[in-house]
Amino acid sequence: xxxxxxxxxxxQDQQATSEPRSPRPKIKMVKSEESDKRILNKKLxxxxxxxxxxxxxxxxxxxxxxxxYQSHKWTVxxxxxxxxxxxxxxxxxxxxxxxxxxxxxxVVESPPFELSEAGWGEFEIAxxxxxxxxxxxxxxxxxxxxxxxxxxxxxxxxxxxxxxxECFDEIAFPEPSEGFLVRVQNHPAVNVPRLxxxxxxxxxxxxxxxxxxxxxxxxxxPLSQWFMNFSEADELLQLAAARQQVQAYxxxxxxxxxxxxxxxxxxxxxxxx
Length: 273
Prior knowledge:
By secondary structure, the protein is of the alpha+beta class. The chain is 23% helix and 27% strand.
């Protein structure tokens, strides 16, 4: 399995608007709905949210069914780091395949953001993420090298155990809008920081029905058993296990040093006598 990690920051351009001058001042009455909209579009200074994602591929060798040009079936995807529904942040994903594929530009409009194909060669896939307009109007392009063959090419290939290549990434959005935070403040796919002192958000917007939300996550995905675990809890468990191994090794070294010291003391006593 292959994994890597990095982080990216996405901003949003601000456009200034102006109105033509009026010969005399006028009092403009603002409707309550328009006022609420302006409040929700307000940018939050010194606040940054992040969305941890994983992108990569799972590929299976076709075994006896493999042919010269169809040796593997594979799925490339973008998912939440803990398999949560990232459709709350990402509106659509465009996968740019090799030009040899029919219709190489594939657009996925809803989660799960994935596509499956078959082929024989490895190549780079451009994955462009488009976000919901209340978060960011700039797309973000990631690049993933489709992996079909195991690292140990001399070993036998298996049609049951796939090759998995995944990358962890954390996308940061500085100064999000208040409306976006209201919409996702309790969503598990979004890391919302502690807000500035004295700042409170309006009540959260209710999420869509559970059945629709469940279709967007990848917890029960057919390939989920092969997904790599990038959760903080898993990392803490691994660190704890490594610490126990180090402590056990140090205890073993202390026992060996104590035995050597004891033998040295015995030899010194004998020589003195």
